[in-house]
Amino acid sequence: MKNVKKFKQAINFILVNILAFAVLSSCSKSTNVITGKVEPSPVIVLPAKPEGCTIDIALNFDKLAEVDSGTCEFEGCLIFDSSLKEAFEKYKSNFAEAQLNNTCPAQQVDIFNQNNRAHTGILWVIDDSGSMRLDQENLATNFNSFINSFKTKDINFTMGITTTSNMDPLKRKVIPAEDILTSEKLKQNETTFVQDFTRLIEVGIDGSGKEQGFASAQEYLASSSGKLLESKSSYLNVIYVSDENDFSTNISAQENITDLKKYVEKSEKLRIHSIVDQVSPQTSSASKGTKYIEASQLQNGVNGDINSNNFANVLKNLGDSISDLITNFKLKTKPYLPSLEVKVNGEILSDTKWEYNENTQSIIFSEAPSESAEIQVTYLPRQ
């Protein structure tokens, strides 16, 4: 490249000198040796410099052109290509007629209607063995931390409760909560709702010491899914609360997930959460709730520590995770973030009132729009 540059400089130097000589010669006179008359010297006319498109990013770039003819043709999307944008805008400032073949994708408009509010069924699977009295009390005492986001975001839900004593049918409890612990009951009387949950969630400690949470959840849904879920379009959240591991016969974490998926139309509508013994150095690793933790991790749920000094925060994180899942508005394709615009009932909503979640490809509102609201999300699909 350096040699090419030097060659061009040499050619330019020669041309400049020839031009200077031509100019001087045109101004001088010479004597005709035959006629003896003084005549003007002939004028030397140099060839014109080649013209064309000199912008290397243009479609019709001409590497031989030395003078730009204003005919460069550009193609692309200025929104996504900063170098193209810079080159085109600079060129257009010199050549107003410059043309661009815009390849930006068409705007995508996704519309959601809050009249069809998503519903979630929440199944609590509670360890009712002899060591769980304080844990059940802790759960009841801090329940407000769990339910607060449901109130704020107006979540449509139904709760069910069962216990881990599946090994002994006489001890396993299915608590009649489906008609009591609902979003409608919460709206009618919050105080009564919380009192009812506190009463029902303390399932007792006279159950089996061979906890079988997986089997209990599957037994419950096999007989009562119609009470817990409005339809297969409902979300299903299963919450295991235990200070021991699961001892269900021949049911692995993956097999538990496979069974529970039967009750929802899409895999992502199932979430499994666990509030279990995360660390128990006095016992073997099989006593740390490993199967429950594995199921939660496989199905993108929340893992909480049953021995946490801040149990209210454990429940808050769990409640926020479930309510966020329900108030997500999943977009049809990944957006170019600067282009996102959210409207509720035709009015642009400040971006301080919503956020985009990259993992779920969704818009999440800090406060749920009203039940009859129409949500419109406009954006450019990401390239």
Describe this structure in words.
With 383 residues, the protein is an alpha/beta fold. Among the domains are: 119-326, Rossmann fold; 329-379, no CATH class. It contains ten helices and 19 strands. A six-stranded mixed β-sheet has the order 10-9-8-11-12-13, with helices on both faces. It has a four-stranded antiparallel β-sheet with strand order 7-19-15-16, with no helix packed on it. Strand 17 (354-357) and strand 18 (362-365) form a beta hairpin. Helix 4 (143-152) packs parallel to helix 10. The two termini are 35 Å apart.
Offer a few descriptive terms.
Rossmann fold, 4-stranded antiparallel β-sheet, 383 residues, 6-stranded mixed β-sheet, elongated
Helix content: 25-40%
Largest sheet: 6 strands, mixed
Overall geometry:
elongated
The H/E string reads HEEEEEHEEEHHEEHHHEHEHEHEEEEEE
Number of strands: 19
Known CATH architecture of the domain at 119-326: 3-Layer(aba) Sandwich
- CATH class annotation of the domain at 119-326: Alpha Beta
Write down the CATH topology of the domain at 119-326. Rossmann fold
Please, what is the CATH homologous superfamily of the domain at 119-326? von Willebrand factor, type A domain
Mean pLDDT rating: 86
Binned strand content: 15-25%
Counted by DSSP, the helix tally is: 10
Low-pLDDT residue spans: none
Radius of gyration using CA atoms only: 37 Å
Helix/strand/pairing class, anyone? alpha/beta
Q: Provide the spatial order of strands within the biggest beta sheet.
A: 10-9-8-11-12-13
User: Ends: how far apart?
Assistant: 35 Å
